[in-house]
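Might you be able to review the protein record set out just below?
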Amino acid sequence: MDEFARAVEATLFASASPLSTDELREHVGDGDIEIALGELSAHYEGRGIELVERGGRWHFQTAPDLAHLLRRTREEPRRLSRAATETLAIIAYHEPVSRAEIEAIRGVQISKGTLDVLMDAGWVRPAGRREAPGRPLLYATTQEFLTHFGLGSRRDLPGIDDLKAAGLLDPLDEGMFQSLGEEQLESEDEEG
């Protein structure tokens, strides 16, 4: 491993949060970051820790098959309520989305506390205001959301068929999930 790859490795290891290639370049200078990341990924493959890319950002994580060893010392977050889970799903599949749009999809009002829980978890953030009467606040998911759920991007979110196959979608949820709209992700595919 050359000195440049070692510098990239040290920077990623010492970083408190995942880093993009541009952020890495700020620390280690000019060089072929992509080649260094490829070398490091190969070097750590099959080891106790691995180098992964999530949403365009790189970080070290415990190998998935060894994660159970750390569960005793890791604080388990509290489970989200059904309302918070539904709200998070709506935001993830429709972002950016306003509170009124979330309520229209869910069919009920959401309490301010629901959005606060999601923002405190670091999974949802304010994403500006819509250019419409009243200029409603918009919400979107965060990089922490992608990292926590092991997603490279929002395009990796499961579709209806995936959820049915995993037995995670009951008949009552199916109608709500369909209203979440894979068409939102499809329209992004057409744009991007």
